[in-house]
Write a structure and sequence with these properties.
Aspartate Aminotransferase, domain 1, 2 domains, 15 helices, globular, N2-acetyl-L-ornithine:2-oxoglutarate 5-aminotransferase activity, cytoplasm, identical protein binding, EC 2.6.1.11
Amino acid sequence: MSLKISRQDFDRFMIPVYNPAKFIPTHAKGSIVWDQDGQDYIDFTGGIAVNVLGHAHPILQQTIQEQTSKLWHIGNSYTNEPILRLAKQLINATFADKVFFCNSGAEANETAMKLARKVALDVFGKDKSNILSFNNAFHGRTFFTMTAGGKSDYSKHFEPLPKEIQHGSFNDMQSAVQLINKNTCAVIVEPVQGEGGVIPAKVAFLKKLRELCDKYDALLIFDEIQSGVGRTGSLYAYMYYGVIPDILTTAKALGGGFPIGAVLTKEKLAIVMTVGTHGSTYGGNPLAGALGSKVLELIKKDKIIEGVAERHVWIVEHLKKINKDFNIFKEIRGLGLLIGAVLNEDFKNQANNINILASEFGVMVLVAGPNVVRFTPALNISKKEIELGMQRFAKACASFIQNR
């Protein structure tokens, strides 16, 4: 007999680094989630940009069942067919020649920066070690990636932090010019800042970073953990911008809900990472490989990316109508299905209150800082699900205004 579980058990048993919603989801299908009481919610979160094909996709279910009947885990003293198949697909679809697999976006970014440091040390010596990131960036929660991130709320509790990491102003070319020099080994940037407020990079800014990295023999790292695997309307956002990085990190949507991360790079850089310089116990396991491979296959076969722009318009039009009724947002921004609704000054620091209210009206949304409501739904979310979810979100906004 199983133990009855309640939301209070989280507060009793879990280390309190999260503050989850009052309800507990129990099952889901497509972009609809049900809780313990049978209440349904339209999911505009996509597991924080993870469930690229929604919940319980039948072909992904079949894939995981088939692979678990064959081989779950084998360790990296051996290789396996599913992960090599996924590596080929990623290489064929991108600029990369080589791939390293891990379990998460943080691990992928950690690996990317270690690779950049190793290249600089081997080729130029120990003085070329500076890494440039940007204010309000988010690159993960490991010590290294947290320091590279530009949000002090995440890092201030763990000082002193690793040295030789600088932060420039995002979308500010002059800031980049002042900070990138001969001692810079890498620049890490999100083409669209996700946690930092859903802020797309300017094309000219990314092109300037590419130019400066080439000038000073620094590596350009694109953190596409949140923007990758079709979310912006291109397989990876670098394709939209027309700026090719030296290293790209990907995770979240790549596994369609199953943990996987990857680092993509060119062969001339990859060769510095020789046997024993890096590794991951679970990274590159056959189960993750099978699911990642199937996700890429389905995105292409079902023309998922081609529908992203249309869904972007549907959601933005609904948000504009809500704004016309309640004058709650000063800006709606983002690319593809990575959308941020920025609150007016009158509602400063109230994004999470709207998030909580939304769940009470049967819709799941996210925040991106205290002033931005974020939407990262499945790329195949239906028009009907969007319309129902936006009706519920409008009611939440009405309640928010009425009860201030």
